[in-house]
Input
Amino acid sequence: MVYDLIIIGGGPAGLSAAIYAVRYGLNTLVLEKGFVIGQISTTGEVENYPGFISINGIDLMEKFSEHAKAAGVVVESRDVLGVRSESDLKIISTDVGDLETFTLIIATGANPKKLGVPGEEEFRGKGVSYCATCDGPFFKGRNVIVVGGGESAIEDALILSDLAASVCVVHRRDELRASKMLQDRAFAKPNIEFSWNTELEEIIGDSIVREVVLRNTESGETWTSPIDGVFIYVGVEPNTEFIDVDKNDYGFIVTNEKMATSEAGIFAAGDCRTSILRQVITAASDGVIAAFEAYEYVSAMKHKAE
Ligand code: FAD
Output
């Protein structure tokens, strides 16, 4: 059997695409490899998805799944290992055999890289965060550190400086990698300070984060600092290694505004693609645009064959 559309990834982008695709009448299948589905299931309260003043991340993902099921979306538990094109068909290799489809939407998301320090996993969602847009408001009037010196770290330090009482950027080098414009804005903020040549060694707390252990990379000196929140920016890894389309230097899939990739009939949506903001709402939005374009693609293909 040849599907009209296969969607790889059953997170917010994939399920939003699927709900629209089945409503366009496309014979659609979603492939999801995870037991825990979607990054949003790894967080606590979500307070910025319209329609829900506050909802637990797992509950929000469950609502997406319920909606998709009610719309008639079929999800199979499979890990996608590779994709190849054979004339008009895309062949999807999975851990349990190959599948064939006319169009494909890649919605495999991305994951924040971990620092790997003691306490990071234990206090994730209890003071440790990877996203100021998501969690900044929980730290209103509090003291936070931002770990990293790149573009995302400084962008989020600026967001946090409008909410938190103080922001300390902890960076293991003596200069930032972020653009000059962002650096100038950060240096001008009275409540952002910088701890140069410093590494985060440990995060300590009880039910929430209480303090961090920092180390000077030159002198080796370590010290403890009381803190309410730790925001970590040491990179983001997109789940795109299995697909051979144009990507940027960091592995994010390059698309146009129609979510089309460099390969005809292959679309990408959500956190796995080049994007200026990675949120549930932007992933859902990408997904429905990709579904519409997949519908147009399949319709044109079938029309040509008639
Ligand atoms: P994902 O949610 O990552 O879903 C991708 C899915 O694809 C996953 O289920 C994965 O298992 C599956 N997959 C990957 N590779 C394969 C493969 N090879 N085969 C089959 N399946 C595969 N956003 C907000 O709007 N508000 C918040 O408060 C918020 N808080 C966050 C807190 C944390 C800790 C994190 C990490 C993110 C947060 N985000 C938040 C961001 C939000 O979770 C993401 O933007 C959103 O989940 C992206 O959706 P997606 O569908 O593109 O990708």
Remarks:
- The mean pLDDT is 96.
- The chain has two domains: 2-111+236-305, 114-232.
- The pocket of flavin-adenine dinucleotide is lined by residues 8-14, 31-34, 37-40, 42-43, 46, 48-49, 79-80, 107-109, 112, 130-131, 134, 239, 242, 270-271, 278-281, 283 (CB under 6 Å).
- The longest strand covers residues 97-106.
